[in-house]
TrEMBL record:
Pfam families cross-referenced by the UniProt entry: H2O2_YaaD
Protein name as it appears in the record: Peroxide stress protein YaaA
InterPro entries listed in its UniProt record: YaaA
Annotated GO CC locations: cytosol
Amino acid sequence: MLILLPPSETKSTGGSGAPLDLSSLSWPELADVRRSIADDLVALSADRDAAMAALKLGPKLADEVDANAALFTSPTAPALDRYTGVLFDALDAGSLSPAARARLAVGSALFGVVGAEDMIPKYRLSGGSKIPLHDGPSAGAAPTMRARWGKSITRALTEGDHGLIVDLRSGTYMNLGKVPGAITATVLTTDGKVVSHFNKHHKGLLARALADAAGTSSRDIGSLDDAVDVARDAGLDARAGDGGIIVTVPA
């Protein structure tokens, strides 16, 4: 089983790992696109004002540009510990077993998708960003992240031997590389409305339950119904929907 998480805009600082080594990341077939985007992001960050405009950052987030400028020189940390925020608080990755962590991966505009233990630096780049190409015949053009990734992420995820894939990424990141046949999740209130504020919290709880169960060799999770059973065992009000898990929470 592989559980795909959305990234977060907020990330932890520092780390004890050596600077970014793109060749060490999971899914090495994504290396060329990763390198292209990373080089363009660093080049853009040499001009703080241009970078802040392209990334749509306010004055209080100027240090995010500095982080991007230091992409290849700053310390790294495991991806699952680098991303922070509501979903990752609920996931509580630090208390997961190594086997459970191994079932998790995170979508990323910069890296496409990274494994839980892939060592990455702090950075800022969202799935909706457009950054200019800094060299080549199309220098200056700013294609979308979706255009830059093309079918690379989809191929990487579908050609691997991952078993059941549960895709908890948000729409923006799903669009960077959809996974046909993956199980999705929707969080609804008891009156049928889509949850917005606590959506990430409940997806974090769901991801934890699935990773914990998948990390236990005695439990086989090979279908939507199996995944729903795991969610229920973890105390979530879950049921099978059209191709995905529906988690219901109080209105």
